[in-house]
């Protein structure tokens, strides 16, 4: 399904491809099956369960089908699922209802989250490079500042992003990286680190890939203090071995814990 919505009517920070992604039923309906063997999902859940030990209110920004919220709600946490996609939130609701889990749902653009009150949660997460789905540096900053705003004093935040430099290990990735560094795509509004591709039948999906320094700067500018950075190995199922050896390039991405 290709959207006929004119560019000026797209929500702030949402590319045309991401708008179509959020509105397509099959993306949500097949999501859990499609990612059933994604090793990152098991690893990031184990990291967060270890970091977020005391039950409280947890907000998942870009929750997808609610895999993390279900895991936490089963342990006594109260969840808030936030996503632009109504089909995704419908699936979250079915999961919550089937187990009588305390998960509320909010359909919203992550760039515009004034609907969420200040200091309203103990934990907040933005996982699976959801931040990279937001178009534009200023909009990504807005998302992180909302995350900081809704956290209570002493609350904890978790973020996952992909590493743009890992493209050096792939021939096609090297060409994309070179073009990105040279500003190719600037005339189309692309920033260094932005990729545009077809994803599961949806054209013009835009995704931003990060460097470690960029990610750190964004978090600090948003008011976060970084407590822990976990570089991921190529299979995204464990921490990167020997991160001191060109870890900024070798890491598939990072999971960051901040407060």
Describe what you observe in this structure.
The chain is α/β, with parallel strands linked by helices. The protein is built from ten helices and nine strands. α7 links the parallel β4 and β5. The model has no long low-confidence stretch (mean pLDDT 95).
What profile does the largest beta sheet have? 7 strands, mixed
The Cα radius of gyration reads 18 Å
Write the element-wise H/E pattern from the N-terminal end onward: HHHHEHEHEEHEHEEHEHE
* Total strand segments: 9
Shape: globular
- What fraction, in percent, of the residue positions are helical? 25-40%
Distance between the termini: 40 Å
Taken as a percent bin, the fraction of beta residues is 15-25%
> Could you say which structural class the secondary elements and strand pairing correspond to?
alpha/beta
Strand order of the largest sheet: 3-2-1-4-5-9-8
Oligomer: single chain
Our count of helices gives 10
Average pLDDT figure: 95
Q: Poorly predicted ranges (pLDDT <50, ≥5 residues)?
A: none
């Amino acid at each position: 399904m290709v959207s006929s919505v004119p560019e000026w009517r797209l929500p702030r920070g949402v590319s045309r491809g991401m708008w179509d992604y959020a509105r397509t039923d099959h993306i949500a309906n097949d999501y859990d099956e499609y990612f059933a063997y994604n090793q990152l999902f098991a690893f990031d859940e184990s990291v967060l369960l270890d970091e977020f030990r005391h039950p409280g209110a947890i907000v998942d920004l870009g929750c997808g089908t609610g895999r993390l919220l279900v895991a936490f709600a089963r342990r006594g946490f109260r969840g808030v699922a936030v996503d632009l996609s109504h089909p995704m939130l419908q699936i979250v609701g079915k999961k919550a209802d089937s187990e009588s889990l305390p998960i509320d749902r909010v359909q919203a653009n992550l760039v515009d989250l004034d609907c969420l009150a200040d200091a309203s949660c103990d934990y907040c997460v933005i996982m699976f490079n959801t931040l990279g789905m937001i178009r534009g540096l200023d909009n990504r900053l807005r998302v992180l500042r909302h995350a900081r705003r809704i956290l209570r004093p002493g609350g904890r935040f978790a973020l996952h992003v992909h590493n743009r430099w890992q493209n050096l290990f792939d021939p096609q990735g090297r060409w994309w990286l070179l073009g990105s560094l040279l500003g190719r795509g600037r005339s189309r509004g692309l920033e260094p680190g932005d990729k545009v591709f077809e994803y599961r039948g949806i054209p013009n999906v835009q995704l931003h890939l990060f460097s470690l320094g960029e990610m750190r700067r964004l978090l600090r500018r948003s008011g976060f203090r970084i407590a822990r950075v976990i570089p991921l190995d190529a299979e995204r199922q464990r921490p990167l071995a020997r991160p001191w050896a060109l870890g900024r390039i070798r890491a598939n991405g990072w999971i960051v814990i901040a407060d």
